[in-house]
Amino acid sequence: MSLVLRGGSVLPALLCLVPPAFAQDAGAIPLEQIEVAGRAATAAGPGSGSLTVPSVAEQRRSLNQTVGSVGFVDAAGIQNRYANTLRDVIKDVPGVTVQERYGQEVRLSIRGSGVARGFHLRGIELLQDGIPLNLADGSGDFYQIDPLALRSVEVYKGGNALTFGATTLGGAVNLVTPTARTALAPTIVRIDGGSFNAVRENFQVSRVVGPADFLVNGTITNADGFRQHEVQRTQNFNANLGYQIAPGVETRFYAGLYFTDQKLPGALTLDESLRTPRIANPAALSGNQSRQVATERIANRTSFLLDVGKLDIDSWAIHKSLYHPIFQVIDQDGWTYGVSPHWAGTFDVAGFRNDTILGLRAYAGQNAALQFVNVAGNRGAQTRNSLQSASSLEAYGENRFWFLPDVALMTGAKLFSANRTYSDKGGLPGNLAAQFANRTYEGVNPKIGVIWQALPDLQVFGDLTRSRDVPDFSDLVQSNAANTTFVPLQAQRAWTVEAGARGRIDRLGFDVTVYRAEIRDELVNFSINAGLGIPAATFNAPRTRHQGVEAAVSLDLARDLTGVGDSLTLTQIWTRNDFRFVRDPVYGDNRIAGLPRDVLRTVLAYARGSFMLAPSLDWVPTGAFADHANTLRAPGYALVGLQASVSVDPGLTLFLDARNLADARYVSDVSAVTNAAALTGSAARIFYPGDGRSVFAGLRGTF
């Protein structure tokens, strides 16, 4: 939202912790008073931002007004490392669990969203520049996210994403791309690469021309991968064009082209993962399993600065084509489109400050979903001819009423109606019966909380939120080796309570939240046969509970260590995941399979001028359970890494990123099953080995 500094404001902007080793501005952040008002400064200086996309500093300040747990990443802090996947971007945000599989395929979970789902995404809304990336049914993946095309990342955990209208268990991740007014430099050229024959080239060009500005960013990546049959080829292009139509009126157009060709190495047995981690699953080789995705995206945001507050009107369209040989050839082509007006403003109520957000969203899409017999990666006989249609209507609002100068009551709610329609013509071999299903999910998700500005640099908050996760078509349309069936699942419902504090006291920065979610009808996955690449099935668990700790602490151990302005900083990040069934008729109080209980990351960073050196330790003391019966779990592991960078000339930076230096063999992810003790043969291949020792280096020039 657009922000104006005003001396009489009562709400300080607050610190959102970013580990100093990975952000240019990661010291104590000066807390300024801010207020949404009817006029905004839109100077065109470097980094100043504009009406449609505020400056990075304003993005951070706006995020820190959220009553609840959030995270912020300034992408300036990831410029000098090999950021290839979403994990490389947000691994330092507490409460976010990202597990790598191969290439750019990762499992992303916040507070156990999609805890047992071993593919794509569920329970988290992905946005780019505040505009949805997910398809109309809520599904999504990560192939169009280019870490080198980001300026910042905002993480809204759980119901704290209501500012975008998202009320799923996991929340939302907003990926903000640069504009010519927020870019780190007018021109950036970069090349990096290293282990597994990885080579990546990136360019970015941006200019401001009077009332207009434009930016173009492109990245081409080629890598053979750690494992056999893991070759990755991606081409990502992002562009935006902004124009200041009149004082207080600006429009910005976005365009993106994303092409991915990723070979799939498949899952292995636990023994294979630890003894021969580089081999591919035999079924992945014989079926030439891969994922070929072509996505085109256009979007627009037009912003109006009003006498009170600011109105943004977003619109978008996404076309996605998927060719995906696994147990069968999945051949899909579809469109998603939507529109969303959003207003935010501040005004007085009986002499008290009041901040309000109001929004509407309407979006829909259709996906032609075909299937064929997989003949070595090619289409054989057709087995499925279906159409998947989804639509949603949403209205949401959030209000902060400052009944004391340093205490605000937050209330909010979202009303929604979401439809899922599935039709299959049938009449094909192995698919003789036609199918038609229509399901509508409706509800109201309320939220209430309080925020207390205890000290100028200390914020304390607590809130209670209601979430609903509507099944996507990967949940509703379930496949096995014989046929495909529409399963009329219930929506997942949960109440989540959280309490936390964040801020900075002298040399100590911290961001700590505890939460507990009581869930009904959780959408829980289990693999039918991960070894053959058959997608997981989904069921509604009657009662489950998710609870945990999201903590990051950063301590400046030393300043002016050698008398030349250098520093030594220790950062500890801890995510505690305690996800269980509750008196389940089958699984009792067992842990839900899929995610490890504790994920810890320790970084010791030394900085001196333009030189930075940061050894790190990623530690998972106990691996995730592989099955809901809790008979088998992956082993724990510890990975040692090292990052270093130095400016060799103004505008020219060299960097090194070394990972898993001890060459540990470990399991990075699992495909959850019901009972691993009963698995034999290919069905026991449910583990994904992590990458071995790797070293990447790069050169980045700015001018």
Q: Which homologous superfamily in CATH is the superfamily?
A: TonB-dependent receptor, beta-barrel domain
Please state the average pLDDT score.
90
Globally, the shape reads: globular
**And the CATH topology?**
Maltoporin, Chain A
Q: Based on DSSP secondary structure assignment, what is the total number of beta strands?
A: 35
Low-confidence stretches: 1-45
Protein name: TonB-dependent receptor
GO molecular function: siderophore uptake transmembrane transporter activity
Pfam family, one: Plug
InterPro entries: Beta-barrel_TonB, Beta-barrel_TonB_sf, Plug_dom, Plug_dom_sf, TonB-dep_rcpt-like
How is this structure best described in words?
This protein is mainly β and 703 residues long. The chain has one domain: TonB-dependent receptor, beta-barrel domain (Maltoporin, Chain A, Beta Barrel). The protein is built from 5 helices and 35 strands. Strand 27 and strand 28 form a beta hairpin. It starts with a strand and ends with a strand. The N terminus is likely disordered. One of its GO terms (cellular component) is cell outer membrane. It comes from Methylobacterium aquaticum. It is found in: Cell outer membrane. GO terms for molecular function: siderophore uptake transmembrane transporter activity.
